[in-house]
Amino acid sequence: MDQHTPATHLPAWDRVLVVVAHPDDESFGLGAVIDKFTSGQSEVHVLTLTHGEASTLGGEIDDLAAERRQELLRASEILNISSVELRDWPDGGLEHADEHSVVEDIKRAIAKHQPDGLLVFERQGVNRHPDHAAATARALSAVAGTTIPVLAWTVTKEVARQLNAEIGSIMHGDLPEDIDFTITVSREKQLRAINAHVSQVVPGGLLFRRLELLGDNESLRWLQAPA
Ligand SMILES: [Zn+2]
Hints:
CATH superfamily: LmbE-like
Order of helices and strands: EHHEHEHEHEHEHHE
Helix content: 25-40%
Shape: globular
Number of strands: 7
Strand order of the largest sheet: 3-2-1-4-5-7-6
Distance between the termini: 24 Å
Number of helices: 8
Number of domains: 1
Bound molecules: zinc ion
Structural class: alpha/beta
CATH class: Alpha Beta
């Protein structure tokens, strides 16, 4: 039987399109991976499908959607993201938004940026937020029938199990044989980008414990492998 050895380097893509549900997903989830891409030769463009207006955090802010846009722009600058597009699909209801229209929206971003590949959350959305899962599902529909590869950020089963046991979260984790990349990352820019999302950062919460457990490693898997 073949020993499964994950790759240790990200694909050498010139252009990456990130498709996520919320402003902060690019930092809280993908920050270190995006930093790794932009520290190499890659240009990273981000498509965020909702304004995150339904967050239970930042409720004291008058216009949370506008505030979160500003936070996203600051975080993107820190992560050297080349462009950000923020859409107005319903936060907390992305899975119920007209599927065809969301897919067409993502296709337009693909046509504009001509990415070598997409970067998304894994199918269950990592923390099983339905918006995260819907963003990935629609991104996969948008590239169905094309040769555009889709790379997904995930965590290991072990990390998910530990977080769920400690914190009572419902994180999804992947088995070692399903992980295609284990890369070494720096957390420096990710942490700065996380802190740019002032309205959403919860000190000592699940996010920081996850980063602690992950150390300088991140795991990724193919959802649509290169042809
Ligand atoms: Zn999110």
